[in-house]
Amino acid sequence: MVITAKHHDGFCLWEAPSAVGPGGGKDWHSVARGPRRDLLEEFCEAMRAEDLCVGFYYSLLEWYNPLYRADTKGRKRGARLPPRRQYAEQVVNAQLRDLVLRYRPEVIWADGHWQAEAVYCGAPGWSASGKPAPPLACPGATTAS
Q1: Where are the alpha helices (DSSP H) in the chain?
Q2: What span, in angstroms and rounded, lies between the C-alpha atoms of 90 and 95?
């Protein structure tokens, strides 16, 4: 089961590091706003109680984050991002590390590649082995042949 951990507006369903909202407001996450709960923790507990795999959809871009906006300033649609990578280094890497270490998901579905290419986000360094991950093995899961 996959839940949206963070979408393109930057709002996070957990107390994420560097969660910045529209206008640069801090604490742009569900623990500080809205339900005031860690929704990912609740999701993980419920899924694992039923022997289901946990997956997170995670947006690689954030429309309102000042670092992302600075990194992409002046970029034309479809053009590669400039070498400036402050948003990727300070936000994406910190948040993905936090997601993996805190919740241990079986799947992370990273989206936003049309604006935030893999090299910009540092994706080649996300694999500890540098090799593709082995096939996912979930209790009760079936695969198409």
Answers
A1: 39-49, 66-72, 86-87, 93-103, 118-121
A2: 9
Token pair for 120: 């910009």
**Please, how many CA atoms are within 13 Å of residue 144, restricted to the half-sphere of its CB?**
0
Dig out the tokens for 20 from the structure: 């910045």
Over the stretch 34-87, which tens digit does the pLDDT of each residue have? 999 999 999 999 999 999 999 999 998 888 888 888 887 776 665 665 566 788
For residues 77 and 80, what is the distance between their CA atoms, to the nearest angstrom? 9
What does DSSP assign to residue 12? B
Single-letter amino acid, residue 12: C
Strands 55-59 and 107-111, how do they pair?
A: parallel
Q: Are 111 and 57 contacting, i.e. CB atoms less than 8 angstroms apart?
A: yes
Task: Tell me which amino acid residue 128 is.
Answer: A
Within 8 A by CB and 6+ apart from 127, the residues are 133
**Is domain 2-125 annotated with CATH 3.20.20.80?**
yes
Neighbours of 120 (CB within 10 A): 22
CB 65 within 8 A of CB 95: no
